[in-house]
Amino acid sequence: MGRVVVRVEGVSWSYDGVGGIRDVSLEIREGEVLGVIGPNGSGKTTLLRCLANLLKPHGAIYLDGRSLEGIRPRELAKTLSYIPSEYEGQPSLTVYDVVSAGRTPHMRGLWWESREDEEIVWESMRVMGVDGLAGRRVGELSSGERQKVRLARALAQRPRIILVDEPTSHLDPRNQIEIMEVLRLMALRGVSVVAVLHDLNLASAYSDRILVLKDGRAVACGKPSEILGESLLRDVFGIDVRILVDPELGRPIIIPLMDKELLGAGLKEYLDGVKELPRLKDTAHPGGTARQGKDNR
Ligand SMILES: Nc1ncnc2c1ncn2[C@@H]1O[C@H](COP(=O)(O)OP(=O)(O)O)[C@@H](O)[C@H]1O
Ligand SMILES: [Mg+2]
């Protein structure tokens, strides 16, 4: 694996004494996809905001061996791209405006894009398939289109590190895969990708390594096959799972189940007399034999 680009040492941040992250250490390597998983409120977004230098936590973060705090904002903006979970910009901006904002840290003059900047903007929109939307307002796009525009902006920025928060939430399966493929292709070109993911199967399929957060602490980090085990997922997420292994790739495939004992008190009450949560079988295939390439349209 590539050399270490970012080193996080004992980083803590709390919001007025509560929440946040506690004593997180990790390394981010060149050209890797680091998936970050953890329950709601476990500190994933806080960690990304620390990495993006938007929060000034206790502890230390080094980029190429230099303290993050000491790096000038413009230089950092050339190096690192942060994509929050929701679009936070003006909805009235056009797609072209949003994508070309990715060039701002590279521009020599204050306002003028060079011919090269313009070409990079168009190329980035083409890569994401949004060049046909260039004149549209981002507020009027579907969430899948808007997410591609935000990825195009990050592509135009040509960063070495990309931090992306829940990039596939609310997207249909094809858009989810397209977004993950773009991130992976960026990684193949040497970009370090840190992606907060809720979908454990996407995390399994696309991560070189997975970092697991729980209550603000990093509780595990490693390859998907080392991390995605029944006991860890039960401990961290409070779910029961069945795990298969992709026969070709060796990556875990997670089938979530629910154990009655893991339900919250209110839901347990709602269950009332039911002894066990029934397993929902597809009665057409009770034995669960794999159907290969057959569907019933
Ligand atoms: N702006 C904030 N003010 C106060 N507490 C916050 C704020 N943002 C997050 N927190 C708290 O910090 C913890 C981690 O939040 P966050 O990093 O957003 O988690 P995640 O992204 O994993 O859902 C949570 O307990 C959350 O309530
Ligand atoms: Mg979050």
Features of the shown structure:
about 300 residues; alpha/beta; Rossmann fold; six-stranded mixed beta sheet; four-stranded antiparallel beta sheet; 10 helices; about 30% helix; globular; binds adenosine-5'-diphosphate; binds magnesium ion
Describe the structure in brief:
The model has no long low-confidence stretch (mean pLDDT 92). This protein starts with a strand and ends in a 26-residue tail after the last helix. By secondary structure, it is of the alpha/beta class.
In terms of per-residue confidence, which ranges show pLDDT below 50 for 5 or more consecutive residues? none
Share of residues in strands: 25-35%
Mean of all residue-level pLDDT scores: 92
Q: Structural class, judged by helices and strands? A: alpha/beta
Distance between the termini: 44 Å
Please identify, by name, the CATH architecture of the largest domain: 3-Layer(aba) Sandwich
Q: What is the count of helical runs?
A: 10
CATH third-level topology of the largest domain: Rossmann fold
Describe the protein.
The chain has two domains: about 5-230, Rossmann fold (3-Layer(aba) Sandwich); about 230-280, no CATH class. It has helices at about 45-50, 75-80, 95-100, 115-125, 145-155, 175-190, 200-205, 225, 230-235, 265-270; strands at about 5-15, 20-30, 35, 60-65, 65, 80-85, 160-165, 190-195, 210-215, 215-220, 240-245, 250-255. The strands form three sheets. Strands 6-7-8-3-9-10 form a six-stranded mixed β-sheet, with helices on both faces. It is α/β, with parallel strands linked by helices. A hairpin with a 2-residue loop joins strand 1 (about 5-15) and strand 2. The protein has ten helices and twelve strands. Helix 4 (about 115-125) packs across helix 5 and helix 5 (about 145-155) runs parallel beside helix 6 (about 175-190). It is globular, with a radius of gyration of 21 Å. The structure holds adenosine-5'-diphosphate (ADP) and magnesium ion. Magnesium ion binds near residues 44, 45 and 85.
